[in-house]
Amino acid sequence: MASTTVTRVTAIPVLALLALLLLHLRHTAAVLYEDERVAEYHKRNYTWPPLEEEYVPNTEGWKRIMKRRMEQVRRIENSYDMYNGWMATIHTGLIAPNFTEYGWAVTKAPQGLMDEL
Question: Which of 21, 69, 84, 106 has the fewest CB atoms lying closer than 10 Å?
Fold first, then answer.
C-alpha cells in the first residue's frame, strides 16, 4: 500500500509540469508574426483601404455608411476595442451577405407570410 501512495504523490508534480508545458506550447504555436502576416496579405493581393467593388452590397449608400464606420473605428484609442471594431466593420461591410435590399435594415414582411404566422 505504501508504494501506491508514493507513486501518486510523485505523479502529481509530473502531471502538473506536463500540463504547464502543454499550455505553453498551445500559446506558442498560436503566434502569428507580423512579417508573416504582411507577406500573406500581399500574397493574397489584398489592399487597404478596400476597393470600391469589394463592398457587399456594392451600393453608394452602403459604401458611405461603411466608410463612415471605418473612420469611427480609426479614432478608437484602446487597441483591444479598435481590433474588435475592425473585425465587426470588415465583416459587416465586406464579407457578410445582406439579406434585404437595404443591407441589414429592418423591412416589412410580406402580408402572406404574416398571415401564415
Answer: 106
The CA-atom distances, in angstroms, between 71 and each of 32, 65, 68 are 26, 10, 5
Query: pLDDT tens across 52-95, in order?
Result: 898 888 889 889 999 999 999 999 999 999 999 999 999 888 88
User: What is the C-alpha separation between 58 and 60, in angstroms, rounded?
Assistant: 7
Q: How many CB atoms lie within 10 A of CB 28?
A: 8
Q: What is the pLDDT of residue 22?
A: 72
Is-contact 63 55, C-beta < 8 A?
yes
User: Which residue stretches of the chain are H helix?
Assistant: 2-29, 34-43, 60-74, 79-90, 111-116
Mapped to the 3 state alphabet, what secondary structure does 74-90 carry? HCCCCHHHHHHHHHHHH
Q: Which residues contact 97 (CB under 8 A, 6 or more apart)?
A: 56
Q: Which residue has the cell 507513486?
A: 7
Spatial separation of the C-alpha atoms in residues 45 and 49, rounded to whole Å: 12
